Amino acid sequence: MRSVLSDAVIHVRSGLTPIVIVVGIIGGLLGAAYIAVLHLLTEVLGPGHNSGLTQIFIFVAVGAVVAMITKIGGETGDVELLVGNIHVLGGAEDVRSLRSLIPASLLCIAAGAGMGPEAPMTQTAGTLGTVVGTRLNRPMTDVRTLTITGMAAGLTILFGAPLGSALFALEILHRRGLQYYEALLPAIIGSLCGLGVYTAVGDLGIKPIWSFPPVPTLHARDLLIAVVLGLAGALGAVVFAKVAAIMSWFFKKVPTSPRYVLGGLALGLLGLWSPYALTNGKIQIEAFPDLRLTAGVLAVATLAKLLGTTVTMASGWKGGFIIPLFFMGATLGQLAHIWFPGVHVSILMACLMIALNVGVTKTPLGTTLVITEMTGLTLLPVTIIAAVVALVATNSVNVIDTQRPRGAGQET
To answer: Are 369 and 164 in contact (CB under 8 A)?
Structure first.
């Protein structure tokens, strides 16, 4: 703790705090603009506004446009590449990737791809943090801190969870907890600034995004149930990683430009089968506690989201898989409640949402706090147990290849 506070004091003395605030404000403004444009495009391209056959045409057309964007403007990069560059270079290698990333991701997500805006917003805000640091000739350690601050601000815009987003941005760089401790307080400051700007510009209140039934009291048995749910979430993470690898193997056999079109066709066909295959599922999660869905519907919804998300990833369509993982955890929690009605549904949903995401992203503290802030539930004893169990049980699960320990083969 003393080391963490010492690093924070050094940063304050070196004048980094005003720059952190600027990066947070830029992240908030950028997020507000991105979400506003995304909402407008969704009104035209989104699956809720078109028939099934029309939506297939839209998906194929968007795939062709994205192929053209990347051919002209260059590849967009991804969060995995950014994570690797943060370790090696301190930040993003090339800001020019945003020229393709921003329009391509807006089109993909607006059309209803099975992923959300969290990854593009994280990558964009993080890259701009790198730009600010390099333009001001800050040392590499400061550039890294500003990049992480930008990532945290970008995540906060989507999650509305400043503390959880800050920890998430730090943890996702590694496979075993956050290690760039000096960036902790700057990331929190940037997240708060970004959220403040976003809520002010959008005239939004600060409140939980999802309303789950409150849990009156936790009992000793709930702690044991959390262990089981952590293991179940770890198993789900293994399945997700395996399916993603199979999809990636298949789509890599297709040349890059046709791959985007084939991905659009596949998403359109999946959408005809089940609407749960499309979008990131954020809005659908909100309705779950009030719906009495059958076990069959919940099983199909989980499978559909798994296929929609992995097809989106493998075909090169842009987006993030965090909210889709939350969706799958929520549906599995509802399904488990049908089988075990004596366990509170919110415990089942929250623990499985966290465990599944932690198994894939290795972010136990960040994910736990994000779900806590997004749902307004006070379930930390059971949710953190599920998170830690999932983290330990998925040691061999590797979806983000560039996650590594601090200082592993590079200068810090």
So the answer is: yes
Running DSSP on this structure, what letter comes out for residue 277? Answer: G
Percent of the chain residues topping a pLDDT of 90: 67
The two structure tokens encoding residue 337: 């409640």
Considering only 206-215, 238-247, 310-319, 391-400, which range has the smallest mean pLDDT? 206-215
Q: Which of 308, 345, 310, 313 is nearest to 329 (CA)?
A: 345
Q: Can you list the domains of the chain with their CATH numbers?
A: 2-202 (1.10.3080.10), 220-393 (1.10.3080.10)
**Number of helical H runs and strand E runs in the chain:** 17, 0
Annotate 225-258 with b (16+ C-beta within 10 A) or e (fewer).
Answer: bbebbbbbbbbbbbebbebbeebeeebeebeebe
Q: Which residues contact 139 (CB under 8 A, 6 or more apart)?
A: none
Measured from the Cβ of residue 380, the count of other Cβ atoms closer than 10 Å reads: 13
Residues 27-76 pLDDT 10s: 999 988 999 999 999 999 999 877 878 999 999 999 999 999 999 988 88
Find out whether 390 and 354 touch, Cβ atoms under 8 Å.
yes
Rounded to two decimals, what is the model's pTM? 0.92
The residues, any chain, with a CB within 8 Å of residue 319's CB and separated by 6 or more, are 105, 108, 109, 113, 114, 115, 116, 117, 118, 119, 120, 280, 312
Non-local (6+) Cβ contacts of 153 within 8 A are 23, 24, 26, 27, 28, 31, 125, 165, 190, 191, 193, 194, 195
Residues 63-91 pLDDT 10s: 999 999 999 988 888 888 888 888 888 88
Per-residue DSSP letter, 116? B
Tell me the average pLDDT of the chain.
89
E strand or H helix that includes residue 208: none
Per the model's pLDDT, the better-predicted residue between 54 and 396 turns out to be 54
Tokens of 218: 């936790």
- Which pair of structure tokens corresponds to residue 48? 């809720």
Token pair 């929609």: residue:
308
Residues linked to residue 116 through DSSP beta bridges, in sequence order: 320
Reply yes or no on whether the pLDDT at 288 is more than 80: no
